[in-house]
Amino acid sequence: MTMDLSSARTALAGLLDVADLHDEALQTLQERVQLALDRKTKPQGSLGRLESLALKLALIQGSERPQLQHPQMVVFAADHGLAARGVSAFPSEVTWQMVENFLAGGAAVSVLARQHGLALSVVDAGVKHEFAPRPGLISRKIGWGTADALQEPAMSLAECVAAIETGAGVVRSLPGNALLLGEMGIGNTSAAALLMARLTGESIDRCTGRGTGVDGPALVRKTEILRQVLARHADASDALAALAALGGFEIAMMVGAVLQAAMERRVIVVDGFIVSSAVLVASRLAPAVLQRCVFSHQSDESGHRLMLARLEAEPLLALGLRLGEGSGGALAWPLLESACRILAEMASFEAAGVSDREA
Question: What is d(CA 132, CA 223) in angstroms, rounded to the nearest whole number?
Fold first, then answer.
């Protein structure tokens, strides 16, 4: 049976009811936490962004002393039919090969997850490969890669809804109160650029970047292909319709993961351009998800700075990264831990017997 937008939203209604955190009780909590930060043994505001991060974590958890428990790094992987058009510098086979690398512990995010004590799971959302079952792999394949979006919608609405629901289910199955998102999928910077252009109104030229390394004439060709895809799906303006027509299985699953994590008031650590595109879609479906998001970094992918501006997000780091995988989230993780420790362990002027008066 063909699904329409109305029935798609009805199917997802339970995930879209993300509460606004800005109520009267939270305002009182915000005042208490800000006072606690101001009374620490330091000049007011001298820890800069670390103080605002501590305050955000407190508000997400509704606690004066937020704690990060059992953090989960979840990497969603899938293939894209549009990759056959040459929009990437690498062939689609690299998607499954990198999944194997994640599971073997050899990828950048694998190394960083080990370093910082992050539980790493890899979700097969729609890779064109059959993986042998093993620890760390979550098999949730919706299809063997999306369709070529230049010819037809990347997904049907039913597939899109199934992917969103599946991503939410993955989060429900995992412990902890912090979710770090990563992705893998040759061609997915194209899908992210398409979603950004459609949902923000930015030109595709400003949204399209090098991805895996295309440059010069190849970048011009990539941009032109994406322009044609947008024209092919000009009627897909609603967030769900755009996600189905232009997105990928891994991006749709991340939308579901973001919605579920937001409902559970988990801290959501956002990686780079592709993860941000999933957050963009999720925020159009349930705006309050942004209140639970910590944006780890500004990537070197050209459209990411513009996307962060549209999301009114302040990234913690700017290291020139454009790897994806969740690598930026893992690198930023110690800052979140430090912010919690400042609130919990740093002495106040009163407790330390230190004068807070100016000389």
Answer: 36
